[in-house]
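Researcher: Structure for this, please.
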Amino acid sequence: MPTASSTTTSGRLLSLLSLLQVRRDWPGVLLASRLGVSERTVRRDVDRLRELGYPVQAVKGPEGGYRLEAGDRLPPLLFDEEQAVALAVALRIAAGTGADIEEAAARALATVRQVMPARLRQRVDALEIAAAGPGGAPRVGADVLLALSAAVRAREEVRFDYEPPSGAAEPVPPRRVRPHHLVVRSGRWYLVGWDAEREDWRTYRADRMRLRVPNGPRFTPREIPGGDVAAFLSARFKGSAGADAWPCRGEVVLDLPVTQVAPFAGDGVVEELAPGRTRLVTGSWSWAALAASLARFDAEIEVIGPPDLRAAFAALARRAARAAGG
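Model: Predicted structure, token format:
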């Protein structure tokens, strides 16, 4: 049965560990003051933490002190209540990130939940979170993501084989890319980097990459166009080589109430002109795609402009007529 003295010591060790986790260096005299003990007691408590596997290092200097370093194994961690709940929420939504870590996240969540006080377990269990990632999205191994992230930080060129899209006639030769950003979009992970051979920025799906080791030489990074990787990637997905905007943008009036147009307008601009009449300004990567996306509203459409959109509707009508005749 634990004594009052051992309980006090255990509580003080937890307090000491909590302090060491929130600040890099702690002078010994300041730790003693915060814990209400002598510096000698602090030294004994530090030795106990070391015996438990925490890599607490002595810091040299006029005041002396201690620092919690990274070790070669993972010791028990200490979280406050807000951190514990935030960790549980993050583990619950891990399945929607596109990283192949669902099983590990589930085991980690079970471990965290097991040691939570009852009131925190009730808060976590009340969370009804479902992964909203796209169904069937390919998963990416955590080892691949960690290796790419490390290459971005170290500014080392990566070498990899790249799986071509379905239906490609010839295999894609090995690539050499200077990685700049690793980003996730709609449940898929992408590497954005500079391809020196092609002298252009390229985007690669991480699930199609088969990394080669070792990495290539170090490089001096260049600034991504526009300086914002999110805007750059969004523009590339819109088919734009410059600003984050659709290369084909048109204006129409639909014989529909604004309430039936707005939910399907995406990033378009919707304006009610009259009851049952809605103005829509929107874009796409091609005029044919824009005309087809507008035709899905199944209503009368008045094209305000530009002429390219009218021409696309005409071509779409001819195609539809041939399909109907067949």
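Researcher: Any notable elements?
Model: Residues 130-134 have pLDDT under 50 and may be disordered. The domain at 4-68 is CATH 1.10.10.10 (Arc Repressor Mutant, subunit A).
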